[in-house]
Amino acid sequence: MITFETTIQDKTVRMYAELPLKNAAGALFKVISQISTKTDIFNNKFILCFGWAYFALIEREENGEKFWVLQTSDYNNDPERNTTDDVTTSLVVQNMQMECVQVAGVKPEVCTSRDTVLVLKSARNAEEIYLTRNEKAKDGDSGWYLGIMDDPDEDKHSSDDYEKIPSYQLIAICPEAMRVLQLPVGTLAVFNKKQLTALVDGNDRPLKFSTEEERRKRGEKQRAEFEAEVEAAKARALAEKEAAEKKD
Question: Is residue 115 assigned to a domain?
Fold first, then answer.
């Protein structure tokens, strides 16, 4: 587990992740720091909706040291009730969505993990599916609909064939679907074998999106850069320790 740490209002704040998500962690720390200048966040009641995910700030004490930990919804264990110190999933989804919006060159429209998606039940296991975003019917509705491409029974479905789910449940259906959730009304995204294959806006104009290979290479580069920074930090710490020992 990687520990990200910063100081906000003279207090130590940490978050933990399985991946070197330095940029996402830094962006979250920055937002929290800005909020702290306007309101008290160190009260064990603070909740932040940052893009898609929700975060809480909880006080801890270990070996006499006091600090604050950012927690997020536990997507592996009833996320509507449980939280976890591992913010990996929340930060990964945040990165996916920010990258998708930037590459597509569109203005984002918020969709949180708790906002609902209308799902055609048979689309859960279909090979080729699509997500399209309509205007929100009410608060808490994302406007997204998940259906089957070229559905032969499209005109035969009854209300029992549909269900509403919180958007985080799309992780289990099609993880790549999480990528497009901040795209605006009118967007249509097509997935084949759980991979994004087409993306268009409300006027049927193609939108750009990165390929799996492009994202893999970028991830490898970011990991290498992070590991190099860690090794450099270790070398500096060792040099400082040796210099201090020489003085003694």
Answer: yes
CA distance 242 to 248: 10
Series of mean pLDDT values for 10-residue runs along the chain (248 residues): 94 94 92 95 93 94 92 90 94 93 95 95 94 88 94 84 95 95 97 94 93 67 58 62 68
Residue 228 lies in a domain: no
Q: Are residues 67 and 142 in the same domain?
A: no
pTM exceeding 0.70: yes
CA pair distance 31, 129, nearest whole angstrom? 35
The pLDDT of residue 13 is 96
Domain housing 86: 2-94
Total domains in the fold of the chain: 2
Comparing CA positions, the residue from 54, 72, 57 lying closest to residue 11 is: 57
Among the candidates 60, 94, 128, a domain finishes at 94
End-to-end CA gap in the chain:
35
Indicate the residue type of 51. G
